[in-house]
Amino acid sequence: MLSDRRQRVLQALIEEYIANAQPVGSRTLVDRYRLGVSPATVRNELSVLEDEGYLTSPHTSAGRIPTDAGYRAFVDDLLEDEYGDETQGSAFDELREAASKMDDLMEKTSAALTRLTDCLSVVLAPSLLGTAVKQVSLVSFTPRRALMVVVTDDGQVLDRHIEFAEEVSSDELASVQNALNAVLSGRPMSEVRGMAAQRTSDALASPLGRVVVDELVECLNAGESDRAYRLGISSLLKKPEFSNAAAALPVLQVLEDDTVLMHLFDDVADSGNALEVRIGSENGASQLSGVSVVAAQYGPSDSSGIVAVIGPTRMDYSKVINAVRAARSALGDL
């Protein structure tokens, strides 16, 4: 455990580095922060913090910057009292009132998180396996084309375009729609595939019914794999840490892969913690060693989603943590 004085020096250095993205020297800390000690004492404390692994010197003659361990001490020990200050809550409350459906709210929440934190935001929709079917609609465009819309009980909306080999009348389509809703409405999504495959009515057992059921299963599969709403790639690229394409490319390749994102957030749901902060090397993947992830689970445990912000390890942790907590609150009551 760091002494109070060492904590104050570490906090001042990290706050200065977060603000300016430049190595910090003892003179800057003495001039800009009321540490109550002499410049020589500050230099000594910085040297000790470096020896203990909280700071590092990028160049021999330059100032110091925080290490992952330094940020971890900052987040765990120095921000604890600030976690409850959800100053951005009203912005997300307004979004919640304006959103017409769950998908709309998740997209708007991701945009608001990016705007508030100037980082990449990700909102991962709840798994479909924990939801139930509310309604299936089949909308005819032409005799050979239709749109399938599946609405879940938590407000998620899935859609899929269907092409028919032969012309289909509106009455035929309506008959299949009614049969699907009779079988599936109110049923847990985890049971849908099996129940749809049973084709318990003449309408579902018909050639048209078999096509629609197969398309329904594909619609659910696509919806389960495409659950991420992400915005703010450009905000991430504007950070000094990623101005070099060689540094940015590996990060972008990882973050644009939904499978990797799912894996990145797996431990958040399993941890049982209200909020998780992963710093640099704690993320596991070497490509993410230069970013931090602040993530929270929202919704009921059997059908939970994830709301997260991803930014450089130099992110403003207090602002980001409060924004994620406020977004989780807005999403969690749906």
TrEMBL record:
UniProt KW Cell division keyword: no
Keywords of the record: Repressor, Stress response, Transcription, Transcription regulation
Keyword Transcription regulation attributed: yes
Domain Heat-inducible transcription repressor HrcA C-terminal: 103-321
A Pfam cross-reference name: HrcA
InterPro entries listed in its UniProt record: GAF-like_dom_sf, HrcA, HrcA_C, WH-like_DNA-bd_sf, WH_DNA-bd_sf, WHTH_transcript_rep_HrcA_IDD
GO biological process: negative regulation of DNA-templated transcription
Top-level taxon in the UniProt lineage: Bacteria
Function of the protein: Negative regulator of class I heat shock genes (grpE-dnaK-dnaJ and groELS operons). Prevents heat-shock induction of these operons.
Listed HAMAP family: HrcA (MF_00081)
Family stated for the protein in its record: Belongs to the HrcA family.
PANTHER family, per the entry: HEAT-INDUCIBLE TRANSCRIPTION REPRESSOR HRCA (PTHR34824)
Protein name: Heat-inducible transcription repressor HrcA
Native organism: Slackia faecicanis
